[in-house]
Amino acid sequence: MRVFLCSYNGFTLAIPIRFVSSIMLCKDKIKSITYFDEENRSTFISLPFLFDCPSLDIRHGIILKDKNPGENVSDNSIHEKTVLLSTEIESETEIPDDMIYPIPRTLSAFYSLNIFNGILFNLFSRSESADNLILLLNPDFLIQYIKKEKQND
């Protein structure tokens, strides 16, 4: 599976490329997990804020693919899109499917919905630190989680 890798405090986040429409440079600082931009009607989700790392710099906006393709809006536009605001995308790599393991129950309780598809240890790193942990993001569950949180506000 092809993924983008982004580092956070204590783990690396793997975002499956099959969910990504495009990438943009971003310097936005936001003070909440999500915000809705009235001008382009897009939802922005701050992953550093979601993962309780609000001091990390947001470097990239990861524009997710539409669930309903075929509209007249260009794929490169952020009009009416969901954008994941993330730390710097450090690399793009292939992770063999047989190296991805189910999330242990103790970690799945970390969020009320399981926003991660799997876990693996970073075989690409030469260090033996805890930062070798890679969590595979499930963007569909993340969006459902955010929508549910917004309804509860």
Structure description:
The chain is mainly β and 153 residues long. It has one domain (2-152). 14% of the residues lie in helices and 36% in strands. The chain has helices at 47-50, 105-108, 139-152, and strands spanning 2-8, 11-16, 20-25, 34-37, 42-46, 60-64, 82-86, 89-94, 116-121, 133-137. It has a five-stranded mixed β-sheet with strand order 8-1-2-10-9. Strands 3-6-7-5-4 form a five-stranded mixed β-sheet. The protein is globular.
Set out the fold topology.
Blueprint: E1 2-8, E2 11-16, E3 20-25, E4 34-37, E5 42-46, H1 47-50, E6 60-64, E7 82-86, E8 89-94, H2 105-108, E9 116-121, E10 133-137, H3 139-152
Parallel strand pairs: 2-10, 5-7
Antiparallel strand pairs: 1-2, 1-8, 3-6, 4-5, 6-7, 9-10
Give the structure's gist in a few sentences.
With 153 residues, the protein is mainly β.
Record keyword descriptors for this entry.
153 residues; mainly beta; five-stranded mixed beta sheet; 14% helix
Strand content: 35-45%
For the sheet with most strands, the description reads: 5 strands, mixed
Shape, principal axes of CA atoms: globular
* End-to-end C-alpha gap: 36 Å
The count of β-strands is 10
Number of helices: 3
Radius of gyration from the alpha-carbon trace, in angstroms: 15 Å
Number of domains: 1
The arrangement of helices and strands along the chain is: EEEEEHEEEHEEH
Overall pLDDT, averaged? 82
Order of the strands making up the biggest sheet: 8-1-2-10-9
Q: Spans with pLDDT under 50 lasting ≥5 residues? A: none
The portion of residues assigned to helices is: 10-25%
Which structural class is indicated by helix and strand composition? mainly beta
